[in-house]
Write a structure and sequence with these properties.
With 102 residues, this protein is mainly α. It has 3 helices and no strands. The termini are far apart. GO terms for molecular function: chorismate mutase activity. Its EC number is 5.4.99.5. InterPro entries: Chorismate_II_sf (IPR036263), Chorismate_mutase-related (IPR051331), CM_bact (IPR010951), CM_dom_sf (IPR036979), CM_II_prokaryot (IPR002701).
């Protein structure tokens, strides 16, 4: 197996280019999630103000189906996309419950 010292300079440059792209994408994902949570926080306050339940299982099911379809068309594993959305939904519900208690 090669060590970093043995990696050809053109391969090292390509790895750096790809990793820089990955880092940029990761930053964009974090910023998009932050924006998403700002919106869901507003939903949480609206729900709390009107005594609506923190969770909306029908909407969640529609969103999961929608995201699975988007993932499939993007050539991303729909099961992975669903797991990710379920994780996000659980966090949103937790935030909504905290808002409702305050």
């Amino acid at each position: 197996m090669s060590t970093n010292d043995e990696i050809d300079e053109s391969i090292r440059a390509e790895l750096t280019r790809l990793r820089d792209s990955i880092d940029n994408i990761d930053a964009a994902v974090v910023h998009m999630l932050a924006e998403r949570f700002k919106c869901t926080q507003q939903v949480g306050y609206l729900k709390a103000e009107h005594k609506l339940p923190p969770a909306d299982p029908a909407r969640e099911a529609r969103q999961i189906k929608r995201l699975r379809d988007l993932a499939e068309s993007a050539k991303l594993d729909p099961a992975f996309a669903e797991k990710l959305l379920n994780f996000i939904i659980a966090e949103v519900i937790r935030h909504h419950e905290t808002i409702a208690r305050s």
